[in-house]
Design goal:
The protein has about 300 residues and is an alpha/beta fold. The chain has two domains: about 150 residues, Quinone Oxidoreductase, Chain A, domain 1; about 120 residues, NAD(P)-binding Rossmann-like Domain (Rossmann fold), CATH 3.40.50.720. About 20% of the residues lie in helices and about 30% in strands. It is built from seven helices and 15 strands. Strands 3, 4, 5, 6, 7, 14 and 15 form a seven-stranded mixed sheet that branches. It has a six-stranded parallel sheet with strand order 10-9-8-11-12-13, sandwiched between helices. Strands 1-2 form a two-stranded antiparallel ribbon. The longest helix has 14 residues. It binds NADP nicotinamide-adenine-dinucleotide phosphate. NADP nicotinamide-adenine-dinucleotide phosphate binds next to helix 2 and helix 3.
Length: about 300
């Protein structure tokens, strides 16, 4: 089968190569999935899980990309709950070969049925952004109706999902990003927008919840804006600053079949729009992940037409 692999951590996305690999064998409780579309998250190649397994052993060349939409083509020993021929989508294990390939083996529990009226390209764009937004807002951030939320990168992959889900949940949302992101962020449901290059973040005042996707100085300044009893949730690594009278939580997104179902339901009824930028074939994937101009929205690789 065709697959994208990486071998050199320092090279980042420029080190991606298209190669021929054996189709993986599904292990116990796995399914083998014929990948139709694959998603890849910016920053993924900086995570150790791409390069070493759970025991710290080198696992290169590894296949990146951990979101997929496709069709189950075989079951591993003992696998229940999914069947051959079923349309599925989901998030694959960070420490196993991923989805930028014609086939991938993945634990069945990491996947959910993909409704027939949700396109594979859309399905592959949902798992990481959708689950990260859901878990950050509701599991870790405990967002309630009427609370205020500061969401960084509100027009990005995760931020656009955060903004839409928080709006539906009845929050007051201040989105941030670059000047060019203003209209998109407001369109996703932000009540206000802060241009991080030109506006003063501190003018936002106090908020109940910060959802940080940027880290660094932006995160530090945001911690000071969390009101007493509030929360800073970050997905940009361990928090460098904590609210004076609140909590700071960093987390890595996990697969969750029920939450994938909630996300798919919202996509079907129009409550949630996915933020897809570029769609490319597997043959063109390396170029698509190394754009020469600023790209907005998620890049999805359509593995099968
Ligand atoms: N911990 C986890 O489980 C988890 C899960 C998902 C994602 N992540 C990480 O979260 C980050 C965001 O992912 P994503 O898919 O949402 O990425 P994305 O689609 O690139 O969105 C990030 C947005 O923030 C903007 N932004 C970044 N730095 C900025 C700055 N200094 N000033 C203004 N705007 C800025 C980006 O604009 P530009 O494109 O112009 O920079 C972009 O619009 C990535 O680093 C990813 O690896 C972590």
């Amino acid at each position: 089968m065709k697959a994208i692999v990486v071998t050199d951590q320092a090279a980042g996305t420029a080190g991606m190569a298209l190669v021929e690999r054996d189709v993986p064998e599904p292990a116990g409780n796995d399914v083998l999935v014929e990948v139709h579309a694959s998603g890849f998250t910016p920053g993924e190649l900086t995570w150790p899980s791409n390069w070493t397994d759970r025991l710290g052993r080198d696992r290169t060349p590894s296949v990146p990309g951990h979101e997929l939409a496709g069709v189950v083509s075989a079951l591993g020993y003992g696998t229940r709950g999914l069947s051959v021929g079923q349309r599925v989508f989901g998030l694959t294990d960070w420490t196993r070969d991923g989805t930028l390939a014609e086939y991938t083996a993945v634990e069945a529990r990491n996947l959910a049925p993909l409704p027939g009226d949700v396109d594979f390209t859309v399905g592959a764009s949902l798992p990481i952004s959708g689950l990260t937004a859901w878990q950050g807002l509701f599991d870790h951030g405990r967002l309630q109706a009427g609370q205020s939320l500061l969401v960084h990168g509100a027009a990005g992959g995760v931020g656009s999902m955060v903004t839409q889900l928080a709006r539906e949940a009845g929050a007051y949302i201040v989105g941030t990003g670059r000047a060019a992101d203003r209209e998109a962020a407001l369109d996703y449901g932000a009540h206000e927008f802060v241009d991080l290059d030109a506006d003063t973040l501190e003018a936002v005042g106090h908020v109940d919840l910060v959802f940080d996707v940027i880290g660094g100085d932006v995160q530090k300044r945001s911690a000071a804006l969390v009101r007493a009893g509030g929360t800073l949730v970050t997905i940009a690594g361990p928090p460098e600053a904590r609210p004076a009278d609140g909590v700071a939580i960093d987390f890595v997104v996990e697969s969750d079949r029920a939450q994938l179902g909630e996300i798919a339901r919202r996509v079907r009824d129009g409550r949630l729009r996915t933020n897809i930028g570029t769609v490319a074939t597997l043959d063109d994937a390396v170029a698509a992940f190394n754009p020469t101009e600023r790209a907005t929205g998620k890049t999805i690789i359509r593995v099968r037409p």
